[in-house]
Amino acid sequence: MSRQLIKGNEAIVKAAVLAGCRGFYGYPITPASEITEAAAAYLPRVGGTFLQAESEVAAINMLYGAASAGVRVMTASSGPGISLMQEGISYMAGAELPCVVADITRAGPGLGNITSEQSDYHQVVKGGGHGNYRTLVLAPHSVQEMADLTALAFELADRYRNPVVLMTDGFIGQMMEPVEFPQAAVGPRLPKWAVAGTEETRGNLISSIYLNSDELEAHVRQLEAKYEIARQRETRAEELYMEDADVVLVGYGIVARILKAVAAEARAEGLRVGVLRPITLFPFPTLHFKKAAKRAKVFIVVEMSNGQLLEDVRLALNGARPVEFLSRVGGNVPSHEEVLAFVQAQARCCAESEQVAHV
Amino acid sequence: MATITEGPRPMAMADYKGRVDPDWCPGCGDYGVLAAVQKALVELQIPNHQVVTISGIGCSSNFPGFIETYGMHTLHGRALPVATGVKMANHELTVLVTGGDGDGFGIGGNHFAHAMRRNVDLTYIVMDNQIYGLTTGQTSPTSQIGMKTKSTPFGNVEGPIHPIASALACGATFVARGFSADQKHLSGLIRQAIEHKGFSFIDVFSPCVTYNKDNTFQWFRPRVKKLEDDPAYDSGDWLAAMEKSILWGEEIPIGKFFERTDLPSLDEAEPVLKDGPMVGRPDHIDPAIARAFIEELM
Ligand SMILES: Cc1ncc(C[n+]2csc(CCOP(=O)(O)OP(=O)(O)O)c2C)c(N)n1
Ligand code: SF4
Q: What domains can be seen in chain A, in order of their start residue?
């Protein structure tokens, strides 16, 4: 397949179909509606089913049903809809069912507005539902990554038998860029644990109920062990100009693109600025941060939310280095100039403290 | 004309004009519904502060901003539970709930059934355009079979819900259908609905001129037939209402399908509310009652 110019939201669906997705149940919401619309158009062509559910509560529960039967399934939504899905996501994590949920974020709280914010971080990355569970979270920052990480999301969902969330902002969902799709498609196959309606799978039971406390504790420990393996194997981050960076810029989604441009300009001015972009938000790329902290003097977190990513960066650094913070919310995007000025000030600050140290 | 004119002068249309001008597309059916609601309030002379307009999310759900009453713009699909809460707190308020077919019959479908079953005393006006307008044109629970929308590119294969029949089946005590282009008729229905004590449901054909190219004003005009024009029709006859409710095609009935007044509304049935609304009661408990209660627990 050659490169095609395509919208981020649409790229997700094409990649999902190629990754073997055969069920999509969703409810329209800006800025994620194109995913639902594209699924309505593409899935029937490969023998998949599409339903416009009556709500996100219904949608996630439809995924629950189809995933139990062993079908690769997906849904997509934004802030308020993702909030509604949390109960179902918790149940699916508890019942160890794979599914992929795309969250194309918008601004809140409440109805907020339809412009881009990154304020779903807490509800998605920390788990907005009840109980001891996690979702794996991937954060694309380009249309190509919308495709690539969707494919990865299905793979991880199956490998860990757990919901995987693809989280990005409305910009990445709505923008068009050239994308190269995989050459081969994954064919649907039936997992061993599915309730497939055959003689062999009659004994399979999909449930998140453990009435006995010890059994539930054992179940939760086993889920935790699974998340621990994911921590060791699945963390991903992109590093740019990080070999000698004094100042490390941290951000994901659309913000990461601004940071890359700012870093390039700062470098041209002779400032040693690098970018560390988490691609997996859970598991968080803690080791990348630990490594960077060995040399860097300061970390700057830039996010379109009120200090949500910031918390994870601080946890990862565990006090090893100071963390500065630049935030815009409400649908406002930190401008190139704004970030650059902030970075220049921090870089100067670093240089001064170095001089003081030499005296 | 109503006779209650306690204020210095009777309320006029302008008194119910909201602080924000509607931002609906030019020609949207919802303008007609807004005018009909305002006209009904003028006729009933209900002061602004005694009315609460509550909606969910959608083009039609922007309604509370466009009318000068108390207003609540709540979650998508959840206007009815919010309105039920308002009624429990202060059942002396006139509660209008406004919204779309997706909001009311899709995401809010279960609330629709239960608010009617409870006979909550409110007026629920659905601006039914058989499409999702705000999210730019996906299928709705009232879209017809075969309809092509952005989420049914090959044509809708699902049958629509029948709002009137559903309301009748769920126990609504006032059930009507209006057409946004016939404002006089519609405002008459809204007026009766507000006067009705109990759950009043009005499904209004309110065409979306931007995204529904099938069920347009032109499509409805020759089809709608007023039940009131048939002298033999008895709106107290539930079975007759059911029969009329499923008619669709060359002839589509509008008007009052059904009304019954022999059932208590939720606030009338709830013993706690017999002495008046919860709001405005003294916020402390009589010490003697409190002591007796505590002793009972010991
Ligand atoms: C939980 C949640 N899911 C989805 C949305 C997006 N959304 C807003 S309005 C709407 C449907 C609008 O259709 P309808 O209720 O028929 O009203 P109309 O716009 O046609 O008047 C949707 C899906 C939302 N606001 N919240
Ligand atoms: S999109 Fe349709 S329902 Fe919404 S304001 Fe425009 S005409 Fe009305």
A: 4-233 (3.40.50.970), 237-358 (3.40.50.920)
